[in-house]
């Protein structure tokens, strides 16, 4: 069952008001969420060590210590774990992003290195690594469970720029989509502050939006109208196949969009409770990315 803090406590205060700087290891650091965790930790004054299989292409801001490692080979993490107090984990790894079976060994190494806190980015199902973390009683763990990313709207950019339109099925579906930066902010607090052990945080934005709402918001941000073309399921499947999506992904999209689970269309106040500030709106996200939706 999801649990949440029942008071704001010191959540959301700057690091200098509440604690000393800490060193945090971020795995999956080059991913969409990983980069936001890195950015938020830096903004709060902490030291970040970013794990990647290819440091040469990581492209992190100055001040981030980039180290080589692979979650499918836990012993490769030993140097990266030295001196860190917290670790952000993902549940998939390797070249084909298979569910990680290495959770118990990763946790064993983390405990031996003195790690006190672990966050896990939920992978959409009960993965072996997440199960191993939940079963561990010797570190403070927090499971981070975001709903649909606002960044998914970037998939519309080509159609908007070239044809001034968005072509989607299920246009009346509701989503409590979340700004990726807010995912990073919640993870950063859980990794560096007390009071988040054994917690499962569902992270959403502050509003429910239809596809039409999102399109109108992007249109306002870019300063030009966008047509919304509703597709049938058959037309949507054909479009996704033409885009190269495999059949299992198409099946997932049909289920997620055609029968959005309640958790994905219910606003939660987790961001404000944990960070002390409101969750960012889709309007804010659209303003940040307005140029992406403009021609030229």
Automatic annotation (TrEMBL):
<protein>
    <submittedName>
        <fullName>NAD(P)H-binding protein</fullName>
    </submittedName>
</protein>
<dbReference type="InterPro" id="IPR036291">
    <property type="entry name" value="NAD(P)-bd_dom_sf"/>
</dbReference>
<feature type="domain" description="NmrA-like">
    <location>
        <begin position="21"/>
        <end position="118"/>
    </location>
</feature>
<dbReference type="InterPro" id="IPR051604">
    <property type="entry name" value="Ergot_Alk_Oxidoreductase"/>
</dbReference>
<dbReference type="InterPro" id="IPR008030">
    <property type="entry name" value="NmrA-like"/>
</dbReference>
<dbReference type="Pfam" id="PF05368">
    <property type="entry name" value="NmrA"/>
</dbReference>
């Amino acid at each position: 069952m999801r649990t949440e803090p029942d008071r704001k406590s010191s959540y959301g205060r700057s690091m200098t008001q509440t604690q000393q700087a800490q060193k945090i290891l971020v795995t999956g650091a080059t991913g969409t969420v990983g980069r936001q965790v890195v950015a938020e930790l830096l903004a709060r004054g902490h030291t970040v060590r970013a794990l990647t299989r290819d440091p040469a292409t990581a492209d992190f801001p100055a001040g981030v210590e980039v180290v080589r490692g692979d979650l499918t080979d836990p012993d490769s993490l030993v140097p990266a774990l030295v001196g860190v107090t917290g670790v952000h984990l993902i549940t998939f790894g390797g070249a084909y992003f298979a569910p990680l079976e290495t959770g118990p060994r990763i946790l064993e190494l983390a405990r031996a290195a003195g790690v006190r806190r672990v966050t896990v980015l939920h992978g959409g199902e009960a993965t072996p690594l997440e199960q191993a973390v939940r079963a561990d009683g010797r570190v403070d763990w927090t499971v981070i469970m975001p709903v649909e990313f606002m960044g998914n709207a970037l998939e519309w950019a080509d159609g908007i720029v070239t044809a001034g339109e968005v072509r989607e099925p299920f246009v009346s579906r509701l989503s409590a989509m979340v700004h990726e930066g807010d995912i990073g902010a919640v993870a950063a607090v859980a990794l560096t502050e007390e009071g988040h052990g054994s917690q499962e945080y569902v992270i959403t934005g502050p509003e429910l939006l239809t596809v039409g709402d999102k399109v109108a918001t992007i249109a306002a941000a870019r300063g030009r109208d966008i047509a919304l073309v509703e597709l049938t399921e058959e037309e949507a499947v054909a479009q996704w196949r033409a885009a190269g999506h495999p059949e299992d992904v198409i099946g997932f999209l049909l289920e997620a969009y055609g029968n959005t689970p309640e958790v994905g269309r219910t606003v939660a106040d987790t961001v404000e409770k944990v960070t002390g500030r409101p969750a960012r709106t889709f309007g804010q996200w659209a303003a940040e990315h307005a140029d992406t939706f403009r021609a030229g």
